[in-house]
Amino acid sequence: MKIVKAEAIPFAIPYAKPLRFASGEVHTADHVLVRVHTDEGLTGTAEAPPRPYTYGETQESIVAVIDKIFAPQILGLSALEREAVHARLERTVGNPTAKAALDMALWDILGQAAGMPVSGLLGGYTDRMRVSHMVGFAPAEEMVAEAERVRDVYGITTFKVKVGRRPYTQDVQACLALRTALGPEVELYIDGNRGWTASESARALREMAGLGLTFAEELCPADDVLGRRWLVAQSPVPFIADESATRAAEVTRELLGGSATAISIKTARTGFTASQRVLHACEGLGVEVVMGNQIDGQIGTLCSVAFGAAHRTTARNAGELSNFLDMTDDLLAEPLAIENGTLRVREGAGLGIDLDTDKLARYRQDR
Ligand code: MUC
Ligand code: MG
C-alpha cells in the first residue's frame, strides 16, 4: 500500500446562497480535491476547504503545501504508516485542512483495502446523524423563512444561528423571531465567530435567557483571555470552542483554562486521526462535543458524517452537515440526501466517494 502520488486539484463551485457570519462570508466553494494513490491502484479522496479567516490557508497555499512539501515527504510510505505520515506532516506548522484531507484520503485507502467502510473502522456506533443547519446573517424575517424552509423540506429541527453582529440586539431579535416562529420543539444554539466583546456577549446571553438555547459558540475571541474566562464562567449553557481549539493541545488549553466547556470537532481541520485525539480528550475530561462544519462540500460532509456516526459521543448531538445544500452543484456522482432530518453514512468500502468525472472536469481550475 505504498503511496506513489498525492494530488491537490483546485476546483470552484458557486454558492446559490452565500453564507455570511461574523468572521467572513463564502460565495464560492473554492476548495481543493485531495487524492492519494497507492502502488496497488487504490485512490483515497478527500477535500480541503480554504478558510483564510480561520486558519490562514488559501486555495493556492493548500495546493502549494501539498505539491511542494507534503507529497514529496510522504511518497514511499505505506498508507498503514499513518503515524509516520503525521510525523512528517507535523514538521510544517499550520496548514490544518491540507493535513486533514491527506489523513482522510489515507483512511479511505485503508477502508478500500480492507473492503470495509471507514465509519465502521473508526467506531461503527451508528449509520446516521441528526442534522443541524446553520442560519447565516440576513434580516430576521429571511433567517426565519430559511429555517422554516429547511425544516419543511429536509425535516431538520436543529439550527445553529450565526450571531456576532453589532449592535448585538439585532441578533437577539433574530433569535427571538426564530424561537417564536419555530416553537419550543426546535433546538437552537448560537455561534458568534468572535464577533462580540465579552461584555456584549454577556448582555446578549442574558437577553436570550428565555429562548432555551442549548449551546453558545465562540461569542468573543479566546485571545481576550480573561474576558473570555469571565464570560464562560457565567454562560448558562455549554460554551463551545471552535476556531480557538483546532488541535488536541489547544482543546486541552482552552478547556483547562476555563475558556470553553464544549468542543466543536471538524474533520476538515483534524481529519480522522486527530479528530479521534480531540474526541478522546473530551470524553476523558467529560465535556460535550458537536460535529461542526467548515462550510464543507459533499465530500467533506461525507467525511464528517462518517466520523460523527462512528462514535457514541459525536452521534449524540445533531451534526452540522447541511452547508452543501447552499451550493449550486458538487462533485459526487450520487449526491447526498438529507431525509427526515438525518444524513446517512455511505455504505461500501472506504468513504464511498464516487466522483462525477464530468463535473470534476468542468469545475477544476488547473486545466
Ligand atoms: C462555524 O462553525 O464557525 C465559519 C467559519 C468557520 O471557521 O467555520 C464556519 C462555521
Ligand atoms: Mg463556529
Automatic annotation (TrEMBL):
Family matches, as PROSITE patterns: MR_MLE_1
Similarity annotation: Belongs to the mandelate racemase/muconate lactonizing enzyme family.
Keywords in alphabetical order: Isomerase, Metal-binding
CDD domains: MLE_like
Source organism: Streptomyces neyagawaensis
Domain Mandelate racemase/muconate lactonizing enzyme C-terminal residues, every copy: 140-238
Protein name: Enolase C-terminal domain-like protein
Pfam families linked: MR_MLE_C (PF13378), MR_MLE_N (PF02746)
Top-rank taxon, per record: Bacteria
